[in-house]
Amino acid sequence: MAHWTRAKRIAAMIAIAVFAGTILVINGCSKRSDFAGFEQEQSQLEQIANEGVPVQIDCTPTPARLERGKYIVENVAHCFMCHSEVDWKAPGAQPIAGKKGAGQKWVEPVLPFLYVPNITPDKETGAGTWTDEMFARAIREGIGHDGRRLFPLMPYMQFRNMSDQDLASVIAYIRSIPAVRNKVPTTQLPDEVKAMLPPPQPLTTRVAAPDRSNPVKRGEYLVTIGNCAACHTPMGPKGEPLAGLEFGGGFVLDGPWGKVASKNLTQDASGISYFDENLFIQTIRTGAVKARKLNSVMPWGYFRNMTDDDLKAIYAYLRTLKPVHHEVDNTEPPTQCRICGGMHGSGDRN
Fold first, then answer.
1. How many CB atoms neighbour CB 123 within 10 A?
2. How remote is the C-alpha of 31 from its chain's centroid?
3. 326, 270 in Cβ contact below 8 A?
């Protein structure tokens, strides 16, 4: 039973990565004066793309690109939540001082083979010798710097929708963080796990810069890069995302943060229909729905630093999701759910 549970969990991790990667998004970054220089570069690239000229990814660390890269890495994509040792007991689950980007053994015991690499610019134990192409393929194609297939806990199926310029900004920023000497073992995937990985999907064309003028499309892009579907969609007995329950919550996360089921994010009465824009922003900023605190495995400690415009765009997109009736309440004891088949609070009310 323990072996089957572990295999099922691994299948779930892979299936949800593949599922969330099917949400193809090419629209929607923040449009704020904070990123004026970056937006000018985006507009120029859009014009070039419209003329049919392929664009080479340029990772030159301009001030605008470094600012944009920091915004994506530390907030939207919350990269350091996985690529650092994290203080799970502190609100917001931030990296331990001096460990930012330095990698770790993955914290969930169900994945004992998994190590998250050191991506700081250290040349002996980190990514200091990686080329821009190595970074790009790891982020958007799931191919490691040494040619290995990456386990899709690294959300490359979602990041493949990241625009070329956002990708360039991410790479430029990661190269700018302090180097940390921290040797992390290389992940060796078991053969049965390798056989379950999604097939390689090389990117052979440029990924266009998003249209930031449409709040819903911008929100969809941010939700994809933020990997929200991966936690907020329940899994079936074989690890498959349950059709019709997209963003319906109930996916149980068990680790040093405790055991908690994700929230239904749809506009059904069992979801967040009672949220207005102000409550949504307040929840992300404070990590609490009024008096009820969010578990830190929900990366509000990273999302809280996103701009108002981006949080409004995310809220606008979530309001377009198909309503899903799925009661999930972590204040109640876990019970069997007849809808998703899992064990979570208020499961017996479904």
1. 12
2. 21
3. yes
